[in-house]
Design brief:
Elements lengths: L1 H14 L12 H5 L4 H19 L6 H4 E7 L8 H11 L13 E7 L2 E12 L2 E17 L2 E6 L8
Parallel strand pairs: 1-5
Antiparallel strand pairs: 2-3, 3-4, 4-5
Length: about 160
Protein backbone atom coordinates (compact mmCIF):
# COMPACT_ATOMS: atom_id res chain seq x y z
CA UNK A 1 0.00 0.00 0.00
CA UNK A 2 2.79 2.46 0.88
CA UNK A 3 4.52 1.69 -2.43
CA UNK A 4 1.39 2.49 -4.46
CA UNK A 5 0.87 5.78 -2.57
CA UNK A 6 4.49 6.76 -3.18
CA UNK A 7 4.23 5.83 -6.87
CA UNK A 8 1.00 7.84 -7.21
CA UNK A 9 2.63 10.88 -5.57
CA UNK A 10 5.60 10.61 -7.92
CA UNK A 11 3.33 10.42 -10.97
CA UNK A 12 1.38 13.47 -9.89
CA UNK A 13 4.62 15.36 -9.38
CA UNK A 14 5.97 14.51 -12.83
CA UNK A 15 2.74 15.17 -14.73
CA UNK A 16 2.51 18.60 -13.14
CA UNK A 17 5.63 19.54 -15.11
CA UNK A 18 4.44 18.08 -18.41
CA UNK A 19 2.40 21.10 -19.45
CA UNK A 20 1.39 21.45 -23.07
CA UNK A 21 1.95 25.08 -24.11
CA UNK A 22 -1.15 27.13 -24.87
CA UNK A 23 -1.35 28.04 -28.57
CA UNK A 24 -3.09 30.91 -30.32
CA UNK A 25 -5.70 30.21 -32.97
CA UNK A 26 -4.76 32.09 -36.17
CA UNK A 27 -8.27 31.83 -37.69
CA UNK A 28 -10.06 34.76 -36.09
CA UNK A 29 -12.87 34.75 -38.66
CA UNK A 30 -13.76 31.15 -37.81
CA UNK A 31 -13.85 32.01 -34.10
CA UNK A 32 -16.20 34.92 -34.84
CA UNK A 33 -18.78 32.74 -36.58
CA UNK A 34 -21.82 31.24 -34.89
CA UNK A 35 -24.95 29.51 -36.14
CA UNK A 36 -26.85 31.99 -33.94
CA UNK A 37 -26.76 35.44 -35.63
CA UNK A 38 -27.03 37.29 -32.29
CA UNK A 39 -24.08 35.40 -30.82
CA UNK A 40 -22.03 36.12 -33.95
CA UNK A 41 -22.96 39.81 -33.65
CA UNK A 42 -21.97 39.86 -29.96
CA UNK A 43 -18.64 38.17 -30.71
CA UNK A 44 -17.83 40.69 -33.45
CA UNK A 45 -18.87 43.59 -31.19
CA UNK A 46 -16.52 42.52 -28.38
CA UNK A 47 -13.75 41.69 -30.86
CA UNK A 48 -14.00 45.17 -32.41
CA UNK A 49 -14.10 46.80 -28.96
CA UNK A 50 -10.91 44.94 -28.09
CA UNK A 51 -9.13 46.06 -31.30
CA UNK A 52 -10.34 49.64 -31.36
CA UNK A 53 -10.64 50.67 -27.72
CA UNK A 54 -8.46 48.32 -25.69
CA UNK A 55 -5.55 47.60 -28.02
CA UNK A 56 -5.51 50.83 -30.05
CA UNK A 57 -6.43 52.97 -27.01
CA UNK A 58 -8.90 54.97 -29.09
CA UNK A 59 -10.81 56.07 -26.01
CA UNK A 60 -13.02 58.39 -28.06
CA UNK A 61 -14.66 55.20 -29.39
CA UNK A 62 -15.48 53.84 -25.91
CA UNK A 63 -19.05 55.26 -25.85
CA UNK A 64 -19.79 53.33 -29.08
CA UNK A 65 -19.13 50.09 -27.20
CA UNK A 66 -19.52 50.66 -23.46
CA UNK A 67 -22.58 51.44 -21.37
CA UNK A 68 -22.23 54.56 -19.26
CA UNK A 69 -22.78 52.49 -16.10
CA UNK A 70 -20.16 49.90 -17.15
CA UNK A 71 -19.29 47.58 -14.25
CA UNK A 72 -15.63 46.61 -13.87
CA UNK A 73 -14.61 43.53 -11.85
CA UNK A 74 -10.86 43.89 -12.45
CA UNK A 75 -9.53 45.16 -9.08
CA UNK A 76 -6.92 47.33 -10.83
CA UNK A 77 -9.30 49.33 -13.06
CA UNK A 78 -12.08 51.62 -11.78
CA UNK A 79 -15.72 50.96 -12.63
CA UNK A 80 -17.79 53.16 -14.94
CA UNK A 81 -17.21 54.07 -18.59
CA UNK A 82 -15.70 57.48 -17.86
CA UNK A 83 -13.45 56.01 -15.16
CA UNK A 84 -12.28 53.37 -17.69
CA UNK A 85 -11.53 56.10 -20.24
CA UNK A 86 -9.68 58.24 -17.70
CA UNK A 87 -7.63 55.26 -16.47
CA UNK A 88 -6.55 54.10 -19.92
CA UNK A 89 -5.84 57.64 -21.13
CA UNK A 90 -3.21 57.76 -18.36
CA UNK A 91 -1.57 54.40 -19.12
CA UNK A 92 -1.83 54.10 -22.92
CA UNK A 93 -1.28 56.27 -25.95
CA UNK A 94 -3.59 55.98 -28.99
CA UNK A 95 -2.28 53.79 -31.79
CA UNK A 96 -3.57 52.81 -35.24
CA UNK A 97 -6.46 50.34 -35.22
CA UNK A 98 -5.32 46.98 -36.53
CA UNK A 99 -7.60 44.80 -38.70
CA UNK A 100 -7.17 41.87 -36.29
CA UNK A 101 -6.75 41.50 -32.55
CA UNK A 102 -2.98 41.57 -31.94
CA UNK A 103 -2.96 39.60 -28.68
CA UNK A 104 -2.56 35.81 -29.11
CA UNK A 105 -6.23 34.82 -29.16
CA UNK A 106 -7.10 31.22 -28.30
CA UNK A 107 -10.90 31.33 -28.51
CA UNK A 108 -13.99 33.50 -28.62
CA UNK A 109 -17.03 31.99 -26.96
CA UNK A 110 -20.51 33.40 -26.60
CA UNK A 111 -23.55 32.24 -24.67
CA UNK A 112 -26.59 34.39 -24.01
CA UNK A 113 -25.39 37.92 -23.24
CA UNK A 114 -21.80 36.86 -22.41
CA UNK A 115 -18.75 36.87 -24.68
CA UNK A 116 -15.37 35.54 -23.55
CA UNK A 117 -12.04 36.16 -25.21
CA UNK A 118 -9.30 33.72 -24.17
CA UNK A 119 -5.64 34.55 -24.73
CA UNK A 120 -2.22 32.96 -24.43
CA UNK A 121 -0.25 34.44 -21.55
CA UNK A 122 3.46 33.80 -21.16
CA UNK A 123 5.24 34.27 -17.83
CA UNK A 124 8.73 33.66 -16.50
CA UNK A 125 9.02 30.37 -14.65
CA UNK A 126 9.40 31.27 -10.96
CA UNK A 127 11.56 28.17 -10.47
CA UNK A 128 13.91 28.75 -13.41
CA UNK A 129 14.71 32.25 -14.69
CA UNK A 130 15.88 30.74 -17.99
CA UNK A 131 12.42 29.33 -18.77
CA UNK A 132 8.95 30.62 -19.49
CA UNK A 133 5.58 28.95 -19.35
CA UNK A 134 2.20 29.67 -20.89
CA UNK A 135 -1.24 29.79 -19.40
CA UNK A 136 -4.61 31.14 -20.43
CA UNK A 137 -5.99 34.59 -19.64
CA UNK A 138 -9.62 35.49 -20.22
CA UNK A 139 -11.72 38.62 -20.53
CA UNK A 140 -15.48 38.13 -20.26
CA UNK A 141 -18.04 40.75 -21.19
CA UNK A 142 -21.80 41.04 -20.65
CA UNK A 143 -23.71 42.88 -23.34
CA UNK A 144 -26.94 44.70 -22.49
CA UNK A 145 -28.93 46.75 -25.01
CA UNK A 146 -26.11 46.61 -27.54
CA UNK A 147 -23.35 47.87 -25.20
CA UNK A 148 -20.75 46.27 -22.97
CA UNK A 149 -22.24 46.56 -19.50
CA UNK A 150 -19.85 44.44 -17.44
CA UNK A 151 -16.35 42.94 -17.54
CA UNK A 152 -14.48 40.18 -15.69
CA UNK A 153 -10.91 38.90 -15.87
CA UNK A 154 -8.58 37.05 -13.47
CA UNK A 155 -6.48 40.09 -12.52
CA UNK A 156 -5.26 40.23 -8.94
CA UNK A 157 -3.76 42.90 -6.75
CA UNK A 158 0.00 42.62 -6.15
CA UNK A 159 2.07 44.13 -3.35
CA UNK A 160 3.42 47.58 -4.21
Amino acid sequence: MKTSILLFAMLIGTTAHAQVPVAANPDHEAMLRSSDPQLAKNKRFVYDFWREVFEAAQMDLAPKYMAEGYIQHNPLVPTGRQAFIDFFNKVRKPAPIEPRVKAPLVSITAEGDLVTLSFVREYPDPNDAEKKYTTTWFDMFRIVDGKIAEHWDPAVKRPR
